[in-house]
Amino acid sequence: MNRLGRITGQGPGLLRRVLVQAAWGLARREGTRGKDVFDRLCHGQCTRRKQAAVALARKILVWCWAMLRDEREWDDSIAAPAALPEMATTG
Question: How many CB atoms lie within 10 A of CB 28?
């Protein structure tokens, strides 16, 4: 099976729509891990916003699955984005 490219459309459509709506909500909310993921996926381009929303929806599903699997509640300290060290520029 070729899994590269577009989403397949398999699975419950209602779940897909709800996850994408949640992704748009997280993308608008400042200071959240979802906003950081969305911005990283967009690369600052307006044309990639829909692709980034679908990718963020999948990431939300992965986070929810991990919470169910580990029988844990949401913990903001775990979900906080790690601070990246500043890259030294030479020149």
Answer: 11
